[in-house]
Amino acid sequence: MGNCFDSKDIKINASDPCHPPQCGALGPGRASVPARQRASCGDARPTADSPPAWFEGMIRNCLQYACEAKAKGRHIVGILCEYTPRELIMAADAVPVCLCGGSAEMIGPAQEHLPANLCPLIKSTYGYHVQKANPFLEMADMVVAETTCDGKKKMYELMAETRPMYVLELPQKPNDADAMAHWVRELRKLKTRLEKAFGVTITDEKMRQAIRTMNRERALRRQLAELMKSDRPPLTGRQLLQFKSNISCICADVAQYRRALELYKPVSAEESVGQAPPYQIRVLMTGVPVVHGAERVVEIIESHGGLVVCMDNCTGLKPILEDVDETAADPMVALAEKYFRLPCSVMTKNSRRLDVLTELARQYQAQCVIDLVWQACLTYDVESYFVKRLAETDLGIPYLRIETDYSPSDSARIAMRVEALFETVRQRASA
Length: 431
Ligand code: SF4
Ligand code: SF4
Fold this sequence. Notes:
By secondary structure, the protein is α/β, with parallel strands linked by helices. Helices cover 45% and strands 10% of the residues. The protein has one domain (24-430).
């Protein structure tokens, strides 16, 4: 998949999806590396052509890539959840693009149709739809969604009134014997739909090629995340969060992942001799996805003495922890098995999330857990009971649940609670 290309500024006008009006979260990413972090986190500041600078322009890069693909006759498929196997879409020679909204500006327009008491991620995504402000959605030939949480499911019905939409039925009892067979059937139905809609044949070989490509990208991103296991990580959590793309496997992105791995090395034991111990509190962040444009809580944590060494959510490690089996006899079954293991709170029971958290806390030497819950996200909100118990009782580290939305109105209150959490960690460390 994908041509390499150089990032160039593109002209913006209102009439062409490839040159849309600029809008909050769709502009180039913001370089928000708090000054206190910069001093202690290696040399990860953006220079003209560094990986941070490249990924600051992620949306612009993706837009250029999607426009070029579209001009060559390739189809664009919007996706809304990490349960959708990108490989299946890539095997149809189409381009999967994540459509999740991170802009607070889109919430007002969404609330003309949707209830105010709904998760901001759903509202923002829908706001882009009604405002026709997401160029990727405007150029999408199909949107693939899943039956995950109720808010999303019902929002999709509204979106489907005017957009070609395909909804996968996701089984929600992961331990049931017949759940996997159902999920495989659902993916086969999506394959048929893609083939009919785009006039292509998705062969096993094409699926295997896409699996290999995605596995390579997942491995690079995993290695980058593993840099944070070090006592002195060379990146901040905010910087790491930025090292990803709304379109997977663009080869220019892959080159930047490789470059980042060459550039950023953890400080070795010898190099750290004589240096003051790291002062940042190592945070394991869990909960809802932190989508592009909605990184405020991460920035608050890292500008108040914390370092997010690990994020287990869908915009962090969760989707890249495991690969798809490249040697499986049936690549569709291999895809189904990998994606179905994603421990989302829509599953019941979702005990795998707790197992993963336990292991990550150990590997990344977490000193506390911060559980982010978007307002009105019932599934993550209820699961916070289990996560709190795991952190405080099983892991023996402090826990903080932060419930918020995309508005900055509670930033000062969140900062105070984060500082209090960090003070508790420091007191325990010095006791
Ligand atoms: S948190 Fe759950 S519903 Fe949301 S993107 Fe991840 S898997 Fe999908
Ligand atoms: S954050 Fe929660 S409510 Fe929002 S889309 Fe994800 S699972 Fe649904």
